[in-house]
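Sample intake sheet
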Amino acid sequence: MRALLMEARGAIAPAVDGRDRWRAFRVADGASPNVALLTEPDGNPKLAKSEIPTFGLSLAPANMAGLGNLCPAASGCVVPCLQSAGRGGFAPVAAGRIRRTRFLDADPAGFVGAVEHELRRGVARFGEILFRPNVLSDVAWEIVAPTWFEIPGVTLYDYTKRRDRAYSRPYAVALSAGANMSLEEIRGHVAAGIRVSVVADVPRVGKPKTWFGLPAVDADLTDAWILGTGGAVGLLAPKGRAKNVRPAWNRFVKPGEAS
């Protein structure tokens, strides 16, 4: 179930009984049936900061589920991945992410249909919602699940390490700087109007307004900065295992010079 293989197969038609298939999958797996695929707006500290109710899809990143790579452009971020931050370090949370990924692998149509059902239900509850489909993965859902983008009241956004996705901007997407991305490359992306997220040696609170001369925003506050226009750097403080990474230009955590 590699991301690139899924994308090569094209759009997945959503199953109308996707919700029932997800419930049945959970029961067969020895779990309670009444658990959603998506994280609720108050179920994730970052998503909860948004003024608009925000839902997220947290799959097992990279090859954590043993079913293929869901982060095909990962660069220096597999070990310090965000999946280890907060409650992600607890075994039940990791097991839940793996179960969702296994469901996607076992029943793609059921998975796409179940997510669509939950998105429509979210719109019915709140009127307007945001949706981050790659909280930990990097799948081109615009290819795999285009019907999600057609749901009225749903605005999608994401982070990606895949430059083709960042430049094609199928929806609001920020390019995440990987270990191999230099300052010169970041400058070039920002000059091209791309929003670039950078994990840097900066504080969680009180981030600089510029970073090495580039306009910067505090990307830890909310994800709303991705929905803006024009090039900018979104600064993120290291979290989880990334706190143990010594900042360097050839690493996932970049230096935190303030200017």
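Comment: The longest helix spans residues 108-126. The longest strand covers residues 154-160.
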